[in-house]
Amino acid sequence: MSSFLSVRDLKVHFPTVDGVVMATDGLSFELQRGKTLGIVGESGSGKSVSSSAILGLHRKSSAIVSGEIWLDGVDLLQISDEEMRRRRGKDVAMIFQDPLSAMHPYYTVGNQIAEAYLVHNNVSKKAAKKRAIEMLDRVGIPQPDRRVDDYPHQFSGGMRQRAMIAMGLINNPSLLIADEPTTALDVTVQAQILDLLQDLQKEFDSAVMIITHDLGVVAEMADDVLVMYAGRAVEYGKCKEILTHPEMPYTWGLLSSVPDVTGDTSAKLIPIPGNPPSLLNPPSGCAFHPRCTHMDKVPGDLCRTEMPELVPGVSAGEHLKRCHLANPDEIYATEILPEIAPELVEEK
Amino acid sequence: MDQTPTTEPSPQGEGPGTATVAAADHEAPRTTANTKAVLSVENLKMYFPVKSSGLIRRTIGHVQAVDGISFQLPTGGSLGLVGESGCGKSTTGRLVTRLYEPTAGKIEFEGRDIANVSARSLKPLRREIQMIFQDPYTSLNPRHSVGAIIGAPLAIHNILPKNKILPRVQELLEIVGLNPEHYNRYPHEFSGGQRQRIGIARALTLQPKVLVADEPVSALDVSIQAQVVNLLQSLQREFDIAFLFIAHDLAIVRHFCPEIAVMYLGKIVEIADRETLYSRPHHPYTQALLSAVPDVKQAAIGGRRERIRLEGDVPSPINPPSGCRFRTRCSLAQEICARAEPPLLQIGKRHKVACHFPGELGHHPEKPITPRLLGVDDTGAPDPGAAPAAEVGNDPGFSDTWFDLERRSMAKA
């Protein structure tokens, strides 16, 4: 076990009356302490389902989870519920997307943060509250000794998210999963929270998984990126590598469909046609083929009939892609880049 | 005589060439900016009363959601309105569509003030000004079929006889890129992006001149956002609709709107064409806002811009800070900022900023530029020697003279 977190062939299937929903289907990745992994994808691509599986949040009666999740030498899928409960919130913690619905409105913020500490540590309530105040102070809430007795509705959106982070980090978890931590926030608050997460990560040397649909957030935070589509990884590698030399048409689509604040305003947005596929009945072959505009460059009917393997990309380095295209780097450089960032082409 | 060296600028110029240029300059239309505005908003205010709890609910204060904003929307053009939550941008959209009646100010639509017209005379107005809502899941009635939703405006305004409504609905469905045969389906049968298209079709039904788009794409998936933005752009070109585009996503607004206003706590702090606003912002808030946006391409080529950290949260609009509302979080704030409110001063051809110390990042002036206009001294205390200039900052359009920051005086185009 060289990696701190190592997920292998993770599958999360939900049996329903209409058939099996394959929310995550064979996901593998690794993460070291002190590093950040960004998981990108649309809603329904399996990002959140996979991270809930790491926390052991899927009920055995409704979901079939298989594969291996090694955290610090222990396979989280093999341990008992009791053992998992002891680790959850202590070794692995999660920050949820919507802090208003993730907090209980009837309990004070301090109460909820202290509870996370009390569960895992044999200390008095007083000591736990003191620790909660410490954490609130650490995440930058002014006058923490007074705000600790406030209710969630008395906090602003940014402060609630800070409180959630305080709750997540109170036991110094070695793995922190942040599920869309800034989606509900304004840009200036988002910048504050991202800075805070980075500072705290350095301080505690935690491994961080950031789940988001915002490539900008990934670009600023992540060391590695995993692009997910229809429950599978379609591109995985070093963040810089993937943002500069993406080799999978879905990643191209993600990059070309969002405008940025510095680029050419006359550059067109190229949307990805169609809608995300149903996981109940995923398309045959490559799951992205019904929305892919580069299918004609693959000989025969390969995209429709055969699922491409996750193989090393054309460019050197740690970069895996799931695509049949033989020369994606060429297509990207000649067709995609001039459309989305003409200013970068001229530089070369 | 032409060769005579002289330090004085000769009134004749140096030759016929320059003389004609000067003449042409003089004859240039004086008010290029103020022509053809379909919508003109002047000193608009919206105060919501805050009531005390208890049996007798007295008004104990006001939320100053929108506090004296002025802007113009050109015919067939777009103006972007950006700012953080609670800055009053959505309230502005609702005022323009007259879903609220403003506390004060003027909203001129095609030359007519609609700020206080009665509910009865609003009905024809609704045909001209329509709205696209943020959340496609809550803005469509789940019990009505798509055909009924899109056809409702036609029936309400008695525009088409009943038997002609369906063909028009199908035509609209086709325009927004949906299958015309799906008119009898219900909203829950559509995805988020498709629902937003239904909302857009409904807004287009009456062929409005102004569309207020309140966060039209923020509830959608990234890959779908581009589809909807492209649809809105092609509709604007095709039907010549003016857009008031409200969003918190600075990149989308920059992509969509040639002119953008930045709001903070109920006020416009800076308004400019997009090139100026995004490359040379002069207000410290705009600068902080822009530096906070994560940028994929920048990060991809290795560069990472310095973020300007804004401390704390936006103050409460019930009791906003005195003077400049941004001063509590501003690194430039001085005494004058607490005492005097900076006017929205025009400092370029299409550029207005409300700050005592406007300047590009790192080049803010040492001394405030506004005291002479406001009749105060450099600390903001009233100066008996100076006479304040007439009302500055409430003109909705741009004039062709403005305050030149370098020369500290009024300049001309």
What does the model show?
- The complex is a heterodimer of chains A (about 350) and B (about 425).
- Chain A is α/β, with parallel strands linked by helices and about 350 residues long.
- Chain A has helices spanning about 45-55, 80-85, 100, 110-120, 125-140, 145, 155-170, 185-205, 215-220, 240-245, 250-255, 300-305, 330-340, 340-345; strands at about 5-15, 20-30, 35-40, 65-70, 75, 90-95, 175-180, 205-210, 225-230, 230-240, 310, 320.
- In chain A, the strands form two sheets. Chain A has an eight-stranded mixed beta sheet with strand order 6-7-8-3-9-10-12-11, with helices on both faces. A four-stranded antiparallel beta sheet of chain A has the order 2-1-4-5.
- In chain A, a hairpin with a 2-residue loop joins strand 9 (about 225-230) and strand 10 (about 230-240).
- Chain A is globular, with a radius of gyration of 21 Å.
- Chain B is an alpha/beta fold and about 425 residues long.
- Chain B has a domain at about 265-410.
- Chain B has helices at about 15-25, 90-95, 120-125, 145-155, 160-175, 190-205, 220-240, 250-255, 275-280, 285-290, 295-300, 335-340, 370-375; strands at about 35-50, 60-75, 80, 105-110, 110-115, 130, 210-215, 240-245, 260-265, 265-275, 345-350, 350-355, 400-405, 410.
- In chain B, strands 6-7-8-3-9-10-12-11 form an eight-stranded mixed beta sheet, with helices on both faces. Chain B has a four-stranded antiparallel beta sheet with strand order 2-1-4-5. In chain B, strands 13-14 form a two-stranded antiparallel sheet.
- The interface between A and B is large, with 48 and 44 residues.
Question: Average pLDDT of chain A, to the nearest integer?
Answer: 88
Structural class by sheet pairing and helices of chain B: alpha/beta
Shape of chain B: globular
Instruction: Summarize the helix and strand pattern of chain A as letters.
Output: EEEHEEHEHHHHHEHEHEEHHHEEHH
Spatial strand order of the main sheet of chain A: 6-7-8-3-9-10-12-11
Give the helix proportion of chain B (percent range).
25-40%
Number of strands of chain A: 12
CATH class of the largest domain in chain A: Alpha Beta
Quaternary structure type: heterodimer
CATH architecture of the largest domain in chain A: 3-Layer(aba) Sandwich
Largest beta-sheet characterization of chain A = 8 strands, mixed
CATH topology name of the largest domain in chain A: Rossmann fold
CATH superfamily of the largest domain in chain A: P-loop containing nucleotide triphosphate hydrolases
Distance between the termini of chain A: 42 Å
* Count of helix runs of chain A: 14
Whole-number total of structural domains of chain A: 2
